[in-house]
Amino acid sequence: MVDTAIYIGRFEPVHNGHMALLQRALDSAQQVIVVVGSAWQARSPKNPFTWQEREAMLRNALPEADRSRMVVLPMRDYYNEAVWVQAVRQGVARLTTPGAHIGLVGHFKDATSGYLSAFPGWELIHVERQGPIDATAIRDAWFGATPDTVQSALAPLADQMPASTLATLTEFAQTPHYLALQQEWEMLRGYRQAWAAAPYPPVFVTVDAVLRCQDHVLLIRRAHAPGKGQLAVPGGFIEQRETVWQSCLRELVEETHCHLPEATMRAALQSVAVFDHPDRSQRGRTITHAHYFDLGDAQFPNVQADDDALQVQWTRIDQLAGMEEEFFEDHFHMLDHFLGLTELH
Question: Is the pTM of this model over 0.70?
Fold first, then answer.
């Protein structure tokens, strides 16, 4: 026995494999901390549920006596394992007594399970995989249905998930969120099929512009899927005969009509960072070069939405932390990198 058992997952949605590991955690300790990942991500086909909705699925699948023994620790992704590990450790430390004997429950499924080795000092409580249960297959069957056929579409998989999950999926299919996510799922599916016959999976290169002025940053709302209606920094795909610098300036102009002389942009450039986490984009392996510009106290440049932008806005930096759930993919974390929005203390 350990004092506290830790179980880390995304639970998108909760299935019986998750519940088997959670039960092992409950059998191993009086207190169980479930670290729910992707906690403040905007809804997407990969992350359709808020962390509160996932917590409810977990609690409703447990017997009443076990619910009080489970504490949920929501955790953002960070897209940086060292920072994420530090955040998890700090979160667990706030919920446990100093010197507590901590166990980490899990199984090595694939490359995504490497985090289990990132917590030296925590005892690894290994659990064999509980059959071929996979949340991706559940989501694909769910999004491949309609609000009227979702129950029959999920019937072949019903024995792989708790009743609370099946009820949540059925009820959620009646909401506007479901239809919007379904459209994104279909778009992404077609996007991946378009390059499925390539000899190697393609790696896409994009650029982004983080433009700061008078302690505001320039944001757009995306006009198209994926991420339709979500906040992002201006950017897009590099073209064949461009450098990343040229692409960055072109995308900024195309999406926002922010026409500034190249010399002004050169003078304002503070740094360039590469964001290359394998899971940062659902469109496929996408590496972006983010350029951070600071115009200081200059007048706000005139801007106007165009191209892939539904809306363009100057947003105060001190408001960004409260807008995390509105951002597309890792764009909040891009801003965090340059502006220190979630610095750990």
Answer: yes
